[in-house]
């Protein structure tokens, strides 16, 4: 053969992709400006899957293009693809993704907002989860490769914070507890070192030693100091120490500090952050719970540019604060109520238990109009000093200087309002759960923050007294 020819074998069975047209590109740089129906990506042993997909996603037109893999992919990275190239459902999967993207506005598709990018990606792939894995290469221990790819940036603490914020807004849902790690309270790093030190001076120059305690005179010293001609003799009173437990004992303290000569049994245990060198007791380090995340119905509506929520105008009627701030104020008030008898309060929760069904039955406009009527009435029930917050479709109210009697009055007024609404055609099928708790109950049960909210949710579910209206 005169002409030197090189064939590239990609091991892709093109027949399985029929009737799709198949083209090849030797590198990402050769991809056309207009994205194709789908991409099939292969790599050399020297290349990295994350780097390749990140380079593709960094092209604005390819941000949401279906990508399938050819070859072996680690199990913790398969979620960044839409499936393997030899999958018989490739055509169907890519078609579903592209059809869903058609329902998203061009303005939203071109948005650089991180929240919007993630929600649109998950909306176009409703069965995809944002998954993380532990990585020794990251100072924050846990990485979310999908976010690294979509945002074209290294994984960091802000990725976890973004996911938690979206979960608080009911745009993402936590799916199963994956792991829990300790992080530095100063910088958020998970690279920690366990350090044993002297409990007296906190020096790490500690070594194990055996001590002897003479019962006759109370002298305590190292074993070598007591040894005389291979026998134990007290250096202070010269008593022969022959029987263990009668003449002497071996103390539990078996360590000595070379810095201050203090001897002890258990060392002081500290955690040291390897990133910022912050040192503290293990109890001072923060426990972070790690989850996988999927998009919620509200997140899907927002991705399409539709704020399909009956709480849209909630902040127009009440003094609304962020949920984390609400919890901080609640925790502060609990501490004040524990110390001062003159300080007391109550917390009340309202939740539309059938929001999606109600919207489907009456439509968005009628549902919003009904909730507007409800909020108008509730504004007259609650006081100017009451604070409100909302998350996961639940409305929280902090009622300062409100006792059990005050809560019952508010409860009855709300109940009458809702009963009037559900008696009308527009309010048919509305179901609202209500529960409350006084500061005295909080203190007596030693509840804090999320435990208070969990107890309120439990009361709402377990006690039929607090369920108003009928489910659709």
TrEMBL record:
Q: Which Pfam families match?
A: TackOD1 (PF18551)
Q: Could you tell me which residue ranges the GGDEF domain spans?
A: 343-472
Which InterPro entries does this entry report, sorted A to Z?
A: GGDEF_dom, Multihaem_cyt_sf, Nucleotide_cyclase, Rev_trsase/Diguanyl_cyclase, TackOD1
User: What's the protein here called?
Assistant: GGDEF domain-containing protein
Species of origin reads: Legionella busanensis
């Amino acid at each position: 053969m005169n002409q030197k020819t090189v064939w590239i074998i990609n091991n892709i069975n093109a027949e399985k992709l029929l009737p799709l047209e198949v083209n090849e590109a030797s590198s990402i740089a050769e991809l056309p400006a207009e994205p194709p129906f789908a991409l099939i990506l292969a790599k050399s042993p020297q290349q990295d899957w994350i780097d390749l997909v990140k380079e593709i996603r960094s092209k604005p037109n390819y941000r949401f293009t279906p990508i399938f893999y050819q070859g072996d992919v680690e199990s913790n990275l398969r979620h960044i693809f839409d499936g393997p190239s030899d999958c018989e459902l490739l055509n169907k999967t890519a078609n579903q993704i592209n059809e869903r993207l058609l329902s998203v506005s061009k303005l939203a598709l071109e948005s650089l907002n991180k929240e919007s990018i993630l929600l649109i990606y998950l909306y176009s792939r409703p069965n995809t989860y944002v998954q993380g894995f532990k990585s020794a290469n990251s100072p924050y221990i846990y990485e979310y490769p999908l976010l690294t790819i979509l945002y074209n940036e290294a994984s960091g603490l802000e990725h976890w914070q973004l996911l938690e914020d979206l979960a608080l807004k009911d745009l993402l849902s936590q799916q199963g507890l994956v792991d829990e790690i300790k992080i530095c309270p100063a910088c958020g790093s998970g690279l920690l070192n366990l350090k044993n030190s002297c409990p007296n001076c906190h020096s790490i120059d500690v070594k194990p030693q055996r001590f002897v305690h003479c019962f006759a005179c109370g002298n305590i010293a190292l074993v070598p100091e007591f040894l005389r001609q291979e026998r134990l003799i007290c250096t202070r009173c010269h008593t022969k120490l022959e029987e263990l437990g009668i003449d002497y004992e071996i103390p539990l303290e078996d360590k000595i500090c070379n810095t201050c000569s203090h001897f002890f049994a258990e060392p002081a245990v500290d955690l040291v952050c390897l990133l910022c060198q912050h040192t503290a007791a293990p109890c001072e380090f923060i426990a972070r719970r790690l989850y996988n995340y999927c998009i919620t119905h509200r997140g899907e509506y927002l991705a399409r540019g539709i704020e399909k929520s009956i709480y849209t105008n909630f902040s127009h009627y009440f003094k609304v604060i962020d949920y984390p701030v609400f919890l901080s104020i609640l925790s502060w008030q609990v501490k004040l109520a524990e110390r001062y008898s003159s300080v007391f309060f109550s917390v009340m929760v309202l939740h539309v238990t059938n929001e999606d069904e109600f919207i489907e039955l009456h439509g968005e406009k009628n549902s919003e109009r009904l909730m507007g009527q409800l909020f108008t009435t509730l504004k007259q029930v609650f006081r100017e000093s009451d604070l409100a917050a909302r998350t996961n479709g639940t409305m929280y109210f902090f009622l300062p200087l409100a006792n059990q009697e005050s809560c019952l009055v508010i409860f009855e007024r709300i109940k009458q309002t809702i009963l009037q609404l559900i008696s009308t055609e527009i309010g048919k099928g509305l179901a609202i759960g209500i529960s409350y708790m006084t500061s005295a109950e909080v203190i007596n049960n030693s509840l804090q923050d999320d435990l208070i909210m969990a107890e309120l949710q439990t009361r709402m579910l377990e006690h039929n007294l607090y369920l108003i209206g009928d489910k659709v």
